Amino acid sequence: MLELNKEYEFFGKVNLINDSTYETYPVNVTTDSNETVIVRIPQDQNILLNKVYHFKTQSIDFKDKIHLEVLDYELLEKIDLNDKKREKLHKFFYDYAPIKITEIKKDIDKIVDDIENPIIKAITNKIYIKYKNDFYLYPAASKFHHAYISGLAYHTHSMLKLAKGFLKVYQYLNKDLLMAGIILHDVCKIFEFTSYENSEYTIKGKLIGHISMGVNLIHQVAIELGFEDKEEVMLLEHILLSHHYYGNYGSPKKPNIAEALMIHFIDNIDSKACVLGEELDLIEAGDLTKSIGVLDRERYYKHHLTKE
Q1: Which of 57, 124, 199, 225 could form a disulfide with 180 if both were Cys (CB 3.0 to 4.6 A apart)?
Q2: What's the mean pLDDT in 117-145?
């Protein structure tokens, strides 16, 4: 319960921005204690819808109601927080991947560090380090699969785990190429969306797409490192070009190396199996799911042997 003439400090998500003829305009905010408050922002300052900020405020009387006059505010992504605190806030305010980001980071860091081929390692490491923060924030899609905060990292990590099984069974596969290809295959989705918490496609995302942007990024980094004529660069570029397999899904080439074909299969498995699991979680045993778009609009029966 708010009291007059007191200072309040909290994280809050902007839900509604209202116009006003006063010196400040009112903003509806949900706080990290799950309260709805009115924060008043000076007319000469802008605030963004659906974003989370850290607010410092003071309570005032505004037309016989308590509003919070902002003293200072800062975007969540610009604040230096540890992973656990940031993850807790994301999970509270948004749809969030069912993961522990610290564990996934540790695992992917090790996979990158374990790459032995010096060319593949240098390219992968440079891209991964440069875009690491966004890689762990962005979704993997706008609606079809892993369409929530940290969905890209969740999808990539699941693919890496599947790939370890493939490597045990099909020993002709090159581990470095397979793992690096998985880490890099969707990395440019961070440029495909307007923001990590509001997954609308950018103009560049619509006109160019993450596949072409990813190939260009590998090519650019290879030139910077002096590797532009190395076969490893061509193989990584081919993996990105072909991982959707079909031209109408964005791939100008079909896979023509073993690792590219396996990455296509693994990508396809995880994107569809994850959605199926999420749909099964929504129903009771003995029921059918709704029709699932990524699975040819089929409905799936949740049998009584399904593991919860």
Answers
A1: 124
A2: 92
> Is 300 inside a domain boundary?
no
Instruction: Look at residue 212 and tell me if it is in a domain.
Output: yes
Please give the Cα distance from 83 to 139 (Å, whole number). Answer: 17
Q: Take residue 97 and report the two structure tokens written for it.
A: 């991947």
Count of structural domains within the chain? 2
Encode pLDDT of 103-125 as tens digits: 999 999 999 999 999 999 999 99
Q: In this structure, what token pair is assigned to residue 308?
A: 């919860």
Together in a domain, 38 and 124: no
Q: Given the structure tokens 């850290």, which residue do they identify?
A: 54
- Write the pLDDT tens digit of every residue in 10-25: 999 999 999 998 999 9
Sequence-distant (6+) residues with CB within 8 A of 296 are none
Q: In this structure, are strands 24-31 and 7-17 parallel, antiparallel, or unpaired?
A: antiparallel
State the CATH number of the domain containing residue 53: 2.40.50.140
Say if residues 66 and 4 touch (Cβ distance below 8 Å): yes
Q: Provide the residue range defining the domain that includes 37.
A: 7-78
3-state helix, strand, coil in the chain (%, to 5): 45, 20, 35
Predicted local distance difference test score (pLDDT) of residue 248 = 64
Please tell me the predicted confidence (pLDDT) of residue 141.
81
Helices (H) and strands (E) in the chain, counts: 10, 5
Using an 8 Å Cβ cutoff, are 220 and 196 in contact?
no
- List strand residue ranges (DSSP E) for the chain, in order: 7-17, 24-31, 36-42, 52-62, 65-75
Residue that is written with structure tokens 């581990």 in the block: 175
Q: Which residues contact 73 (CB under 8 A, 6 or more apart)?
A: 39, 41, 47, 53, 54, 55, 56
Tell me what pLDDT residue 98 has: 87
Q: Does 45 share its domain with 176?
A: no
Phi and psi of 78, rounded to 5°?
-95, 0
Same domain as 154, residue 248: yes
Separation between Cα atoms, residue 133 and residue 153, nearest integer Å? 10
Residue 112 domain-assigned (yes or no): yes
User: DSSP secondary-structure letter at 229?
Assistant: T
